[in-house]
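Supplementary Methods, section 5.1.

A reviewer requested that the exact input to the structure prediction be made available. We therefore reproduce it here, unchanged from the version used in the analyses.
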Amino acid sequence: MHIHLIGVSGTGMGSLAGLLKKAGHRDTGSDTGFYPPMGDALERWGIEKLQGYDPAHLSPRPDLVVVGNVCRSTNPEARAAIDTGIPYTSFPKALHDQCLQGCRSFVVAGTHGKTTTTSLVAHLLHAAGLSPGFLIGGIPLGFDESFRFAPPGSPFVVEGDEYDSAFFEKTPKFWHYAPEVAILQAIEHDHADIYPDMQSYRNAFHGFVSRIPEHGLLIANAADPEVRAVAARARCRVSYYALDGEDTGEVTPTWLAAEVRASGELLPFDLFVGGSSCGRWMTPLSGSHNLKNAVAAIALGVEAAAVPMPLLGRALVSFAGVKRRQELRGTAGGVRVYDDFAHHPTAVLETLRGLRNRHPEGRLIAIFEPRSATASRRVHQASYAQAFLPADITVLAPVGRAEIPEDERLDLAAVAAELRAHGKQALVPGNVAAIVEHVAAIAEPGDTIVAMSNGEFGGIHDRLLTALCARVIEAR
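The structure derived from this sequence is encoded cell-by-cell as follows.
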C-alpha cells in the first residue's frame, strides 16, 4: 500500500514512516524542511521526501494519507486529500490500524517520564527475548531506531501522548492505542494550548483508563493523588507502585523501592513486592523520578509479560538511556555539559535533583528555555522558581513563543527575582550567544551545566563545549 505522510519530519511522524516502511508499505512524506537528524533518517529508511505542502504531491494518488497534528485545517495538501476523497487518517489512528492490530498493546502514559519509561520497558522485554515492537517519542540509545515492527501476538510498547490527534480529530492520541496494559505515572496540568484547565486535562486520562479492558492491567503511581483518583475508576486490575516514605493515601502499593545512597555511577535500591524483599537492585538512571520509572517498568515486565525478576535485574543495569534525557553531551576543562528535555516545572525540579545527587561536587548551572505551549505561559509561573532551587546558578533564555501575548507569557524577570530572594544567582540574557558567552566564562572545573528545552535550543550544548574548549586552549 502507498501511504503518504503530511508533516513527516516530526519525531513521531518520521518514526511512524519508518515503522510503516518496515511493515512493507511504500512511503512518501512531505514537509517544509528535512533537517538533521530526522531528514537524514528518512533518507536512510528509504522514505521519498517531498518539499513543501503541495496538492501535486498526491499524484499518483496514494492509498492512504496520514495528516500530522502540525497541520492546520488550511494546509493545502491535507485539504486536497480530504476534498478529493482520498482516504485519510491521523497519526495515532494509522499506528493502531497498521501496526498494533493483533499485538498486545502496552502503553506508557502520564505527564512526565513517558519517553524514558517506554524505552526502558522495550529494553527489558527485548532482553527477555520477547522481540517487542515499539514506537518511542525520543531516541533510545540502546536501539538502532526509535521504532520496531512486531508480528501479531507480540507485545508492542507505545509512548502514550495525551496531546490531540489532528485538526479533524480533536481527541487525545493515546485514546486510539487500545491498551491491554498501561503504566500511568503522573497527572499534572500540561498542554495549556488544548487543555484550558485541570479538569479538561484530567478527563483525557479518565478516557484513556476507561479504554483498558477488564482483563487488562493498569500499573499506577500510588504517590500521585490525581493518578489514584483516575485509577480508582478503572475496570481492570490495578497494581500500584511507589518509593518508600511517599504518601500513597488510602492505597498500599504492591511494588515499593527504597533508595540507597549512591556510591558510584549506578543508583542502588532495595525492591519490595507485596511487602517481601526482592533484594538489592541497581539502575544507571539518576534521580528519584527515574527510580520510579524503573519500578514501573519492572512491575510491567513481571505482571504483564512474566519475565523472571533476576533477568530484569541484569537487564536494568545495561539500560543505555535516552537521548536528551540527562544525556551527558561532553566534558571540557573539567566542566560537564548535559542535555535534558525537561520543560514542565516538576520535570525541571526532578532533573536538577537527579544531577545534584549524581554530582554533589562543584556548582550546578541550570540553563532553561521555556519553549513549549505550557512553559511559555504563566500557567505554572509560581512553580518555576521552586523548580530551580537545586541549582546554584539559573540562566533563563527568552520565551520561545513570541506569538503568546505578553500578559499571558511566563514572566522570566519575576522568576529570576524570586530565585535571588532565595539567595541563588539568576540572570536573563537576551539570546543564546549571550548565554554561551556568560556561562563559559563563569564555569569552573567540577561544575555541571544542564541545558533544558523541548527544542533544539540553538545548538547550545555544542556551542558551550566549543567555548569551554577554547577557554582551555587560551589558558595554555
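The chain has three domains: 2-90, 102-317, 327-475. These observations are discussed further in the main text.
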